């Protein structure tokens, strides 16, 4: 089966969750179908990859620039439509999709901006990834904007929409989305993590995330203010390792806090830590680094906004309040057998629920049957 992949954003480098997802899914999907692609490309944001492009029978690149995105975003907002649903879809990219589409072949559209494409005469599937209409908090779901929810529901009428987590699918169904046109296709993890040997340093907690993302910065601030002083007083030699894009933005660095910004390889950090934490007070979609930590054999302590993005049967320890989070970290750092047990369960969970090949097969079946 031939398949056109269309994205207004080139899926490389994989320094964002959406690009990581598309790069991995398309790598596996290319073993199942002949792929053609049309990608928007913005210098400074995107980097072309010859190895990635060899997955496709043909690749068309449509250049774009930041000024186009700003102008399109303003036009959308003035028209009463959230700019996230279209600002990256330049006129050149939209017309290119119509030119590249062939009769009868399904089209895979990547990202919320791709929803700005006019109705295609061919079957289309849209990877929305996650919803923007709600934020998960410890006290429950919070609607962001009615206009955003309305736009997402409209997408589910125009396309078959795929999402990275079942919880987002249920959210749209609760608000009137057609369950037959909403499909959860989970993210996977790098299979190398399953085989990684564990040699943790004593008393190392690990927090991984993109710290250009405000909820991650807020989570770190909350943990350092409310939990870290108590944990340090409890146990000498305890350290916190903070790793991820934008970690160099963190100005205040209490004692025993290590910062690794823009780490080229995450594996050593997973191998050398005892416990992974994700203390986010608000979250959306899936926190990929939590899944990666489980695949690498780390026990995870997280808040309920994070855990609700995971699949059923996950082994994360969930705590929302200060005392509960401290107790969960304290219990794991003092009990090697418990860490080993939860680490093994985490690996089993990740193998079962987060496999890129399985997700690509599920996506292929959606594309084959789309109408």
List the helices and strands and how they pair.
Elements (H helix, E strand, L loop, with lengths): L1 E6 L9 H13 L4 E8 L8 H4 L4 E6 L2 H13 L12 H10 L6 E4 L13 E6 L4 E4 L2 E4 L2 H13 L1 E4 L2 H9 L7 E3 L7 H4 L8 E5 L5 H13 L1 H7 L4 E6 L12 E5 L5 H6 L2 E4 L9 H8 L4 E3 L1 H4 L9 E2 L3 H12 L2 H18 L2 H14 L2
Parallel strand pairs: 1-2, 1-4, 2-3, 4-5, 5-8, 8-9, 10-11, 10-13, 11-12, 13-14, 14-15
Antiparallel strand pairs: 6-7
Helix pairs in contact: 1-15, 11-14
Query: Mind telling me which CATH architecture of the largest domain this is?
Result: 3-Layer(aba) Sandwich
Main beta sheet strand tally, sense and closure: 7 strands, parallel
The count of helical stretches stands at 15
Number of domains: 2
| Helix residue percentage | 25-40%
Q: CATH homologous superfamily name of the largest domain?
A: Glycogen Phosphorylase B
> Low-confidence parts, pLDDT < 50 over ≥5 residues?
none
Please report which band the strand proportion falls in: under 5%, 5-15%, 15-25%, 25-35%, 35-45% or over 45%.
15-25%
CATH topology of the largest domain: Rossmann fold
Structural class: alpha/beta
State the shape.
globular
Average pLDDT, rounded to a whole number, is 93
Distance between the termini: 15 Å
Spatial strand sequence of the major β-sheet: 3-2-1-4-5-8-9
Number of strands: 15
User: Helix-strand pattern, N to C?
Assistant: EHEHEHHEEEEHEHEHEHHEEHEHEHEHHH
CATH class of the largest domain: Alpha Beta
Radius of gyration: 21 Å
